[in-house]
Amino acid sequence: MDEDWDAEVGLEVPQAYVPKADLMGSLGKNENCDPCSAWSGDFGSKDRSGFGKDRDNFHSKDGSGFGREREVNEDCAFSNRGRFGGQRGFRGFSNQGKPRGGYRGGRGGRGNGELDDSCSREVEISSDFTGWGRRFGRGEQKENEGRGRAQGYQRIPRGGYRANDEEVFSKTTGSLSSTVEENGEKTGPKVTYVPPPPPEVEDLIFAHYETGINFDKYDDIVVEISGKNVPPAIMNFEEAEFCDSLCKNISKSGYLKPTPVQKYGIPIILAGKDLMACAQTGSGKTAAFLLPLLQHLMQDGVAASRFSEIQEPEIIIVAPTRELISQIYLEARKFAFGTCVRPVVVYGGISTGYTIREVLKGCNVLCGTPGRLLDIIGKGKVGLSKVKHLVLDEADRMLDMGFEQAMRKLVSFPNMPSKDLRQTLMFSATFPEDIQKLAADFLKSDYIFLTVGQVGGACSDVNQVILEVSQFSKRDKLVELLQMTGTERTMVFVETKKKADFIATFLSQENIPTTSIHGDREQREREQALGDFRTGKCPVLVATSLAARGLDIEHVQHVVNFDLPNSIDEYVHRIGRTGRCGNTGRAVSFFDLKCDIPIVRSLVKVLSDARQEVPAWLEEIAFSAHGTTGFNPRGAVFAALDTRKSSSFSKDLGSLNDPMNPSEDTNEDLWE
Ligand SMILES: Nc1ncnc2c1ncn2[C@@H]1O[C@H](COP(=O)(O)OP(=O)(O)OP(=O)(O)O)[C@@H](O)[C@H]1O
């Protein structure tokens, strides 16, 4: 079951969760237990039937390893019983097992209380994650640890825990606002957290990881463009004719040549066209929109003015999580280095006063998660009349049920230029056709549709392995995998916040230094957790789907889907945390026959399209579960269809030969 997104996004928060078993207590007396330090908690025997000496609190009747008070769906409760299927072709992880240990912190207190491990799944719509940019070196991280060191959870009256404010989406007003002042009334503790400042040292600002061996293979990927008057792609950054500052910053970033989405996207955006762009995870979509937009600002000669009571940014960028928007902000700050353009980032979970002060220092590029963005606009601190460019990153997420209302509210503000008077850009690795149609409400009718590879296709640099593992065997299997990955960075995805904490606790018991990140944790805890993962202090990060999109962290070599998600798009994004920028990676997913049948067909298709080995047992399940009609898992790799082509637009839109591969036949070859 996925996180409780309503509580995250801010639908009215149910009663604060009161943990039946005080996690912190069972972790040891120190509420501020150090993350990933040598495990000091006394968890008694290594018997894996429970989490430790408080096993009574964690045991369900069936010994599944969870507290008896939890709502247990017997079929899907996970514990150490049962078997797991071996997997033909599973090559295992590199064997660098080293003893490790330690886990900090439990979970926040908001959510819907009981853990329900049933197979039914909810979709977590968003939250505001953050964690300063991936570039913090150990030194920087150390310094920030001193500053923003994670605190233990705050006990609030009435017992239980409550993560400091998340943004609350008021059911009544339909607006996202901080819980501190919802409709003028105080609704929760004031958020006072101020994140550590972003790096000032140039080396840290421009720190980057190397492209992988497969970087040049990007040029072999099928590209499709539909729309009118499409400018030709660039072969190199010089052809974009960026200003000197941008050219220097591109070079300092280690970018030697553009990726396909940049080759085609940059000239389209420079030409002022609206764009819906789909390209695989880790292929440089962020720079594809940032570079041309910053070029527009440089050409227009804008400069941030700290003397205005109301800031009027020329660019607004939205993304679904704090983590991702912070990352985009750092990229914008990097590319704008040495110029008078000032990016600012706003997101929930941090002091509103701090946010406003940062904006009022000057703001040309406003990066934000929807809640805090709408909040600060509503407070009159940001004017929209000068907005020329609006970017929706992870656009399909921004337009699905959780955010559509907020996005419509954003574009409906009185001074926000209409879609015909601004440039709107949408980027994602996945773009379901129904969302594409919805996107048309935000784009000019003549927008360009760009697909690099197959929309929704997985990155082919990720080796995907599917193992049949029942809920009862997952923990054993996970430990086995992690003991092989050693200190290699591994992200483990689970479906609920509570499970994230329980699994992280369990792994700590197994001397695997682990931390967790999910929507119920305090802001500083998230940043600490992410920092520990980035620096390698905790090479294992247990995360919910909140961390599935956009995270660009160096050296993530493995992704484990402890629980498969309920949507194939989510799967594609999760495994895309590895295998980035031409590097290779590996994703192992535990397929539970009792829970995961609904995704089996899509999963086989994604594996096939990415030319991965499809286990025979999985294919059989796919055929038996849904029959064979209309299911051809080894069918051709299809580029996405521009949904406009299925309507009257089709006569106006032509596909262009891929100018990068003039010999490419734009008809049949596209489909092979
Ligand atoms: N032209 C380039 N040359 C070298 N590295 C690049 C280039 N473009 C982007 N990168 C690097 O590749 C990594 C992935 O880029 P980015 O995060 O923008 O990918 P993405 O397509 O947005 O991925 P996702 O879909 O997961 O959000 C980043 O570290 C970025 O700095």
Automatic annotation (TrEMBL):
Domain Helicase ATP-binding: 266-449
Compositionally biased region (Basic and acidic residues): 48-73, 137-148
Keyword ATP-binding: yes
InterPro entries according to UniProt: DEAD/DEAH_box_helicase_dom, Helicase_ATP-bd, Helicase_C-like, P-loop_NTPase, RNA-helicase_DEAD-box_CS, RNA_helicase_DEAD_Q_motif
Protein name (Swiss-Prot/TrEMBL): RNA helicase
Motif interval(s): Q motif: 235-263
Region (Disordered): 48-118, 132-157, 172-196, 648-672
Source organism, top-level taxon: Eukaryota
Entry's Gene Ontology BP terms: meiotic cell cycle
Ranges of biased composition (kind: Gly residues): 99-112
Cross-referenced PROSITE patterns: DEAD_ATP_HELICASE (PS00039), HELICASE_ATP_BIND_1 (PS51192), HELICASE_CTER (PS51194), Q_MOTIF (PS51195)
GO-annotated molecular function: ATP binding; hydrolase activity; nucleic acid binding; RNA helicase activity
Enzyme Commission code(s) on record: 3.6.4.13
Limits of the DEAD-box RNA helicase Q domain: 235-263
Biased segments, Polar residues type: 172-181
CDD domains: DEADc_DDX4 (cd18052), SF2_C_DEAD (cd18787)
Native species: Erpetoichthys calabaricus
Catalytic reaction equation(s): ATP + H2O = ADP + phosphate + H(+)
